[in-house]
Amino acid sequence: MRRHSAEEAILAYLRENALLEQGMHVCVCFSGGVDSSVLLHLLFSLREELGLRLSACHFHHGIRGEEADRDEAFCASVCRELDIPLYHGAADVPALVRRTGKSPEEAARDARYDWFAVLGKKEGIDRFATAHHKNDQAETVLFRLLRGTTVAGLRGIPPKRGDVIRPLLCLSRGEIEAYAREHGIAYCTDVTNFSEKHTRNYIRMTLLPAMERVNPAATEAILRLSRYASEDEDALSAMLPPHAVPQQVAGLPAALLRRVVARNFTLETGKTLCYTHLDELCRAVATGKDGFIGLPGGYRAVLSGGTLRYEAATQEPLPPLDPGVLREGTTLLCGGALRVTMRRSGEPISVRPSPDGEFVYNLSIEIPLSCSGICGMIRYRCRQNGDRLRVRGVNRSVKKLFSESKIPVPLRERIPVFYDDKGVFCIPFVGVADRAYVQERRSASFILQVEIADRLPERW
User: Fold this and answer.
1) Fewer CB within 10 Å of terminal CB in the chain, N or C?
2) Are residues 108 and 102 in contact, defined by beta-carbon separation less than 8 angstroms?
3) Is the pLDDT of residue 200 over 60?
């Protein structure tokens, strides 16, 4: 008996992408819609030839009330008729949205896939089959393009990710609906699929049809772009160095640098970077910028001395530096994380314990200063826009001096700026104004000792 073209296409696609092996337990993710109904019918028809043990699963999202209950009952009746197991899962997605702040689509997807992981282990399921098809692929590529994506994002939906396979990616929506009509396959209709308040529905119902008025083969053109992007991404990824220490990314072309940074973040954290964070990181690496960059998923990038690493952003920020007047002796600032001592030249250094034992003053500097060059009281504060320091006869921007000194950005907010009635005269680790500078320590009127602590596991 001659097979249907859809069956031929699926068989070829399964083999080409090595999605299944003989004897596997395959569970169809069965919503009751036309796509998953056709997928279940096709795999049921091919189960003996493929040597599969077939089951289905249905997930109730707690969103559509009686309509969702109807879909669940429909799926149960279909599976009874086919005599295959149906596994039921459920979640209160609206509650998840309120608790997590995720979008309804994201919360629903995460809940489903979390359940798949548990169900797969419990029932010995080798593969979960979803009903994504060609049009879903085109819509996904457009969706990512509109949001902003890398070349990797243009690959769209992969045929296989982990234990999830997509056997219908070789068929269009039209081919799936035609198969359902020809074989009299019943299915449910989800009315929310026709609401354009959801971006994907708008792309499917308005944007793609508008593109097809310009080019009737717009969907195929998008799929072709996706295929080329996938091939290019595979080729470029094969050129990447092994998972490397950050120094090994120096000098890489921009296309490879982006991929190394993105891959290393994923390998180290299990998360993915959006293009905004990826671009910011690559610019920082390329320019040798030091500091912290906040990243999604509770992580941050730490850049220092040309290296890039990732860590959990769990440390409490240190208290801010409040302005004040400096007195002789020791002054504790920033909750004790900054310790400033002013003593007359020649006075012995006394050992001072940390205020509560939690700080390690890993950065310390002693600055000899001339009293004759200082006018009025010595004050301190954080740096401000427009701060300048006259060094070696030239008025220099403090911002540029910080940059030239390669002071990490977070540390710049911790370093005190000392000033008097004439303006800024000293910035530790950066420079001393000509009027307060002494070349030899024995010529100094007094000594400023600045000690800075942080809670980082690796100190700047």
Assistant:
1) N
2) no
3) yes
